[in-house]
Design goal:
Layout: E1 2-5, E2 15-21, E3 28-29, E4 34-39, E5 44-48, E6 53-57, E7 64-66, E8 70-75, H1 116-125, H2 143-151, H3 173-188, E9 191-199, H4 201-218, H5 225-238, E10 244-247, E11 250-253, E12 259-261, E13 263-265, E14 268-270, E15 273-274, H6 282-297, H7 303-306, E16 311-315, E17 334-338, E18 342-348, E19 351-365, H8 371-386, H9 397-401
Parallel strand pairs: 12-16, 16-17
Antiparallel strand pairs: 1-8, 2-4, 2-7, 3-6, 4-5, 6-8, 9-19, 10-11, 12-15, 13-14, 17-19, 18-19
Length: 404
C-alpha cells in the first residue's frame, strides 16, 4: 500500500482544497492517471497516481489539506480486474497552440437517467438533460419533469418561479485570494485612474487585410492583444516608473516587460504572465495568449505561470464594458483597461466622421507615478495604436531616416 500525498506547489502555499475526485473509491487506476483535482489559493492542479492499483480515498471532497497530507492510498499489490481500461497514451505536444478548439460533443441521450417517454420528448423538443431536474426515484427524469421545463422556459424544473431561498456556498481558495488582494490594493496604494480614447480604424484595417494570411502562416488569429501588448512594451520602456514597484523604501525598476493578462477562468479571475513580451513578435504574443487563455479555462495554469508580472492588461470590452476603472494588480504599479469598440462620431480635420473608438483607462499608484508620467504613458499607447507602423521600433520611419 502506497500513500499519495499533497505535493509542494509553491513557497507561500501551505494548504489546498480537494475539489473533486475523478476516480471513485475502489477503482483500479493506472500509473500517472489523474485521480483528483486540488485547488490552492493561486491555481487548480491535478494529482496523479504514482503506481497502478486499487484506489482508496482518505480525504473527502471539499476537505482542506496541508502540504504533505495523505489524499489517498493505492494498493499496488491488487491484481488488475478483467475489463479494466488500459493506460491511455499521452498525445504528443503540438509545436504551437491551435487557434480554435474542437467543440465538446454533447452527452449521449442514453447516458441520462430518464424514462423512455421523457427521453423522446427531450429529443423532439431539443431540451438539454442538464436543464431538467428529475423527480423520480434516484433523480430519474419523468415525463412531467420535461413538460414542466417546456412550459416554463428559462427555469429549472422543480423550482418555484419566485423562490426566496438563499444558497450558501463556501468561498474557494482562489476566490479568497482574489478578495484579499483586491482589498489590499485599494487600501495600500494611492490609486488614481486616467482616461483616453483611441481610434481603432487603422488596426481594424490591418486585421481585415492580413488576418487570413497571418492565420495561415502562424496558426493563430491576429487579435487586438498583440497590438496592445506591443504598444504597452514600447511605452513602458519610455516611462520606466510605470513599470516599477515599491519595495520597502526603494523603487525597483524593471528593465524587461513581463505582461500579465487578466483572464476570466471558471473559478475566478487569473492573471497569467507573458515573459519578456518586449522581445516577442506579434505572432509569438498571440500564440502565448491563446496558450495561457486555454490553460486558464481548463484550470491548468501552474503557479509559476501566474507569478511575477510587471504590468497588467485587462480587457473588459469582451464582456461589453464601455468604460471602467481597473484595480492595480499589486505589487505592480499600473494596469491598462481595454474596453468595447464602439462606432462614435468624432471630429476629423474639421469634419464629423464615424470611427471605431475605444476608451482606455490606466489606473496607477500615485506614490510612484506622477500625473505627467501616467498621462504621457497613455498618450504614447494611443499614438502607437493609431499609427501601428510605429510599433516596428517605436519611431516614425521618416523621422528616423531624417534623424529628427
Amino acid at each position: 500500500m502506497i500513500e499519495i500525498k499533497v505535493p509542494t506547489v509553491g513557497e507561500s502555499i501551505s494548504e489546498v482544497t480537494l475539489v473533486k475526485w475523478l476516480k471513485k473509491e475502489g477503482d483500479y487506476v493506472n500509473r500517472d492517471e489523474v485521480i483528483c483535482e486540488l485547488e490552492s489559493e493561486k491555481a487548480t492542479f491535478e494529482l496523479n497516481a504514482e503506481q497502478a492499483g486499487i484506489l482508496h480515498q482518505v480525504a473527502q471532497e471539499n476537505a482542506v489539506l496541508n502540504i504533505g497530507d495523505v489524499a489517498c492510498t493505492i494498493d499496488e499489490t491488487a491484481p488488475k480486474p478483467e475489463g479494466a481500461p488500459a493506460p491511455v497514451p499521452q498525445p504528443a505536444k503540438a509545436e504551437a497552440p491551435k487557434a480554435t478548439a474542437a467543440p465538446t460533443p454533447a452527452p449521449a441521450q442514453s447516458d441520462v437517467k430518464a424514462t423512455p417517454i421523457a427521453q423522446a420528448i427531450m429529443s423532439d423538443k431539443q431540451v438539454k438533460p442538464s436543464d431538467v431536474k428529475g423527480t423520480g426515484s434516484l433523480g430519474r427524469i419523468l415525463k412531467n419533469d420535461v413538460l414542466d421545463v417546456i412550459a416554463n422556459p428559462g427555469r429549472k424544473s422543480g423550482t418555484e418561479a419566485f423562490s426566496r431561498e438563499d444558497k450558501h456556498e463556501k468561498m474557494s481558495n482562489l476566490r479568497k485570494t482574489i478578495s484579499r488582494r483586491l482589498v489590499e490594493a485599494k487600501n495600500s496604494t494611492a490609486m488614481l485612474t486616467t482616461f483616453n480614447e483611441v481610434d481603432m480604424t487603422r488596426i481594424m484595417e490591418i486585421r481585415k487585410l492580413y488576418k487570413d494570411n497571418f492565420k495561415e502562416i502562424h496558426g493563430v488569429n491576429l487579435g487586438f492583444m498583440s497590438f496592445f501588448t506591443k504598444a504597452v512594451c514600447i511605452a513602458l520602456q519610455e516611462w520606466p516608473a510605470v513599470n516599477a514597484y515599491i519595495s520597502g523604501d526603494e523603487l525597483v525598476y524593471h528593465e524587461y516587460c513581463d505582461i500579465s493578462i487578466a483572464v476570466s477562468a471558471p473559478k475566478g479571475l487569473v492573471v497569467p504572465v507573458i515573459r519578456n513580451a518586449e522581445s516577442l513578435s506579434m505572432a509569438e504574443i498571440e500564440q502565448k495568449v491563446v496558450e495561457l487563455a486555454k490553460k486558464a479555462r481548463d484550470n491548468k495554469l501552474s503557479p509559476d505561470e501566474m507569478a511575477g508580472g510587471t504590468f497588467t492588461i485587462t480587457n473588459g470590452g469582451v464582456f461589453g464594458s464601455l468604460m471602467s476603472t481597473p484595480i492595480i494588480n499589486i505589487p505592480q504599479s499600473a494596469i491598462l483597461g481595454m474596453h468595447k469598440i464602439q462606432d462614435r462620431p468624432v471630429a476629423i480635420n474639421g469634419k464629423v466622421e464615424i470611427r471605431p473608438m475605444m476608451y482606455l483607462a490606466v489606473s496607477y499608484d500615485h506614490r510612484i507615478i506622477d500625473g505627467r508620467e501616467s498621462v504621457s504613458f497613455l498618450v504614447r499607447v494611443k499614438e502607437l495604436l493609431e499609427s501601428p507602423d510605429l510599433l516596428l521600433f517605436g519611431k516614425d520611419p521618416v523621422k528616423t531616416l531624417l534623424e529628427l
